[in-house]
Amino acid sequence: MSTATEFKQKISDAEWQTRVDLAACFRLVHMYGWSDLLATHLSARVPDADDQFLINPFGLMFEEMTASSLVKVDEDGNELSPSELGINPAGFVIHSAVHMARPEVACVIHTHTQAGVGVATQKNGLLPLTQQALAVIAHTGYHDYEGIAFDLSERDRLARDLKDNKVLILRNHGLLTVGNTVAEAFMWMYRAERACRFQLKFQQAGVAPTEISEEMQQVTIERNRKANSKDGYRPIGVNEWPALLRKLDRENPGYDV
């Protein structure tokens, strides 16, 4: 019997499925070029234990993450499924902040991409230049830089600045997204990353923008809020996730062990 099979038998089916989805998400983050060697982190709430979440061991590349390698921790930072590699303490601070404050959030993703950090460093952040940006702005908050996230007191301020949004721009640092599923958190990161990339591409052109009126900005933001709500037509991640897993199965299988 394999080690992964033995491990799977010790946990609930719900936890195993969450582990599989989160491991897949790590590999997709790498596949789309958003990983930062061993830095940054993803987490997912353990579905049958609200005060526990899964996070990456500090020592595995995102492209090699597996369901059984993920570390389960509680809100006090105790490792409940220990790894010889341990976890990133800054990752614990950031992710525990969200999981403690937002019980409906199932997944948190944090990245340090060129586009994300490029926009996070700008005084005015994500600008309302494109339809893609307005879709993200409708669900975005900002958190001021406080240094490497080792101070547990920062958790209150992270939660305060995130509010009920799906995206948090960490100034001078990077992007953070959340979702009620792993799939939703991934798709919000996809959208935020793309909006940032479009902004930088435009800024590199050095030409004047075709501005969107403030009235149309607000109309578009409100339409996005409604479309992305529980009563909207756009269940983010529902249709994309199975297709993304098929792509992953073709290009980097093995995450589900």
Task: Describe the protein.
This protein has 257 residues and is an alpha+beta fold. The protein has a single domain (3-245), classed as L-fuculose-1-phosphate Aldolase (3-Layer(aba) Sandwich). It contains nine helices and seven strands; from the N terminus they run H-H-E-E-E-H-E-H-H-E-H-E-E-H-H-H. Strands 3-2-1-4-7-6-5 form a seven-stranded mixed sheet, sandwiched between helices. Strand 6 and strand 7 form a beta hairpin. The protein is globular. The mean pLDDT is 95.
- Classify the helix fraction into a percent range: 40-55%
Radius of gyration of CA atoms, rounded to a whole number: 18 Å
CATH homologous superfamily descriptor: Class II aldolase/adducin N-terminal domain
Helix/strand/pairing category: alpha+beta
Largest sheet: 7 strands, mixed
Return residue spans where pLDDT drops below 50 for at least 5 consecutive residues. none
**How many β-strand stretches?**
7
**Distance between the first and last residues' Cα:** 13 Å
State which percent range the strand residues make up: 5-15%
Q: Kindly state the mean pLDDT as a whole number?
A: 95
As for the number of domains, it is 1
Shape: globular
Q: What top-tier CATH class fits best?
A: Alpha Beta
